[in-house]
Amino acid sequence: MGCAHGKCCNRDSSTSDEDAGHHQRGIRPYKNKDGLTQRSLELVHVPSHNFTLQYSSLTQHGYYPDTTDRENQDSFCIKTQIQAITVLVVGDTLYVANVGDSRAVIAVKDGDRILAEDLSVDQTPFRKDEYDRVKLFGARVLSVDQVEGLKDPDIQHWGDEESHGGDPPRLWVPNGMYPGTAFTRSVGDSTAEKIGVIAVPEISIVRLTPSHLFFVVASDGVFEFLSSQTVVNMATAYKDPSDACTAIAGDSYKRWLELENRTDDITIIIVQIKGLSNQSGVGTTDSEVHSRPCQTGGSMNQSAAIVPPLMHQRPLESDVG
């Protein structure tokens, strides 16, 4: 599930209306019967540090082959609940704010290798700190198999997010079969709030260097079956971020159908970093990362170039351009 929002504060003048498909803000959504929405290539110049961001995004709505008109179970289970992740570029610094289990990842060149470095940490019961916090609010933390009596509910260990086999731990009220959320933070969920689901974002700050090639912001529909490194490897293979978005979303879609016989909503944004040098005089060679939670004050009003939040909600026409 996911809905991509992009806001450019300094659009590159070289992106013409003709190139952008004569669509408002250079965004041309393409839709088919399977609910595909894609943004054309966008360019944003960051004048304070003289580099360019080149990005594209794609959203594929959830799909059930057996009941094609069925509403996505995650998007519509709790209609008021939203998860969101936002990356704000201010000069040569990234500010990442996350509520939920979407993820931001940056590609870092290290010699001959390109490594994935997570800019956010999924807020799920797999994390001990989040598990302990929601338990204090009275949440039951159980997988669906445990709730249905197929597995022992007293075994409070589910492996990790890479090996849970499609049945992650979820949050339930003490004496009910709801809400069943697989995340521990969201916005606007009054029911889950009673068992510890909060809307407080975790914030990380990263100073960009020439070793940072691009970053990816994507929903859990992408990362359910693909690791951060796999996503970075796939994105590296494409010069055009639009093609990279298509390839990653397509592979995610295929894996969902193979393993679950359905798909989650799949949203991905890829932002390439072009022309960044060390001329700012910062003097750092490695990325500087401050994370979880880093709720700092201070102004972020200089050279704000792009704000691409990704939200978990039902996509509306106004949301996609």
Automatic annotation (TrEMBL):
Bias-annotated ranges (Polar residues): 293-302
Molecular function GO labels: protein serine/threonine phosphatase activity
A matching Pfam family: PP2C
InterPro entries, per database record: PP2C, PPM-type-like_dom_sf, PPM-type_phosphatase-like_dom
Region feature (Disordered): 1-32, 281-302
Residue ranges occupied by any PPM-type phosphatase domain in the UniProt entry: 4-273
SUPFAM superfamilies: PP2C-like (SSF81606)
SMART domains named among the record's database cross-references: PP2Cc
PANTHER family (alphabetical): PROTEIN PHOSPHATASE
Name of the molecule in the record: PPM-type phosphatase domain-containing protein
Species this chain originates from: Gossypium barbadense (Sea Island cotton)
